[in-house]
Amino acid sequence: MRLPFLTSALLFVTACSTESEPNPPPSTRFVYPSGVAFWRPPTAGGPAASNGYLFVANANFDNCYDSGSVVALNLDALSAQADGQSVSVPRLGSAVPASPLVFEDLSTSGDSLVQIRSFAGDMALWVNPGSGLPRLFVPSRAEGNDLHAVDVSLGANGAPVLRCVQGGVDCREGSLSLTNDIPESLREEGRTDPPRAPSPIGVTVDDASGTLYVTHSEAADSPARSSTNFENYLVTLKTDNPTRDTLGFIPLSPTGYAYGGSDSTTVGAGYIYVTGRNFVEGTNGTVAANFVLRLVDKNVPGTVLEPNLSSVYGIREARAARVVSRPVTAAELAARPNLVRERLYMLARGPDTLLTLDFEYEAVPGGAATTPFFRVASAVPMPDGVSDMQLISRQAPPNDANTNILAVTSTGDSAVSLYDEALGQVVAQVPLVNSQNQTSNPSQAFGLTVDNPPGANAARLFVTNFGDGQVAIVDIPDLTRPQDAKLTARLGTQQQRDPNQGTSVCQENQP
């Protein structure tokens, strides 16, 4: 006689659990921050007059909330209390405070946050030449494997306003999936399914061509979920029209090449450099990547090259990469008008290393580039878990090409390391850890962006600390002395963890 009652009760409980109240991401703090970008409007008056804007992707790694998010901060609007006084974020080039400032109140409004899918990766920023305003690109590894595009505008008093390119503030609606609804016109001959890009993670903008490049860390099988016929693609889109109409897939494993996952891209004069990383091979688990570096011809994308790096220096996989041009003399250009020299900086794991590679080739305008020669210029040991890298220019004369500073984040010790190319060594390691719960809640320095304005003898780094839910500001007050770099401030409230479960405390931190 009790069975109908029990059934009704169970149905009631089920209805309550499936129809839960909306739980949007918080606007008052970061939640597993990953990708990050910086922008200062040209009309702002330079670093002495404006600290600019910071954009942060929140990965919602523990799924505490309904979605991830992208937030925008006007750095000049932040304030904190220090020694009983209200203080602002110091301007770049000003005196660095004796102790790091903590700006827990992010001063965000409803207009400065949009929702995206969880598990966000890197962030890329493109400035629309027509409007002069930025557009942000953020990939997500959640279901759908979406690429989110977010437009930035400025409201009253310089407040940042974010809107999804397709409209609204929930970018999950109508976002571009890189695994579903791929146009049949992109299907490759001999493959059952159209190309896919599962687990998209890296995004790079090529301003010269208006092209966005997206990498994905897992190889795509065909048919899907068959663990057969794997391939990895370099996804292409137009920055001014990031829709299926401009979607493209460049196969990275032509006949004779092993497949693998990819992490990062950087764009040279004739080639796109693509780094390889570990990937998940369907039902067979995680295996080591089968390539660490591949080159894609910019004008002939079907041409993919793989330098035989393993014969010179053995590494397991790679992460971030940056490329810069190297000097070519007038006499050399007279003999070889299309001669290109480039230096590639690449973060490697297994062992963790900053590799410097020099490439030389000829880039024929509108045509295929010649096969490059390369050499390993240096290999510098780095802390465990190298993640991201940014180049800081001292803006030296063109004839002095060894003046760059490389900033590198590492998740293992949660520090930012500074490599001075002029000296050929790491000159500073700035720790970013918080003392609280480091065993169960390590800081994990992850994403990195830089404020390195022309004409300034100082630079500022913004580092997302994935585990503790904050963004660190590191200043280099004098670029001739990068060893004087110092932690200036922390943005956001430290993310709390349950020491018993090892997971996030999902509630909002109350003031």
What does this entry show, briefly?
Residues 491-511 have a biased composition (Polar residues). With 511 residues, the protein is mostly beta strands. It has two helices and 34 strands.
Protein model, in words:
With 511 residues, the protein is mostly beta strands. It has a domain at 47-177. It contains two helices and 34 strands. The strands form nine sheets. The protein has a five-stranded mixed sheet, with no helix packed on it. The radius of gyration is 23 Å and the shape is globular. The termini are far apart. Mean pLDDT is 89; it is low at 1-18.
Q: Main β-sheet: number of strands, strand sense, barrel status?
A: 5 strands, mixed
Described by its quaternary structure, the protein is single chain
Strand adjacency order, main sheet: 6-34-33-32-31
Shape: globular
**Proportion of helical residues:** under 10%
Total strand segments: 34
Tally the helices: 2
Distance between the termini: 52 Å
Low-confidence residue ranges = 1-18
Residue fraction in strands: 35-45%
Mean pLDDT reading:
89
Class based on secondary structure composition and strand pairing: mainly beta
The Cα radius of gyration reads 23 Å
Protein name: Lipoprotein
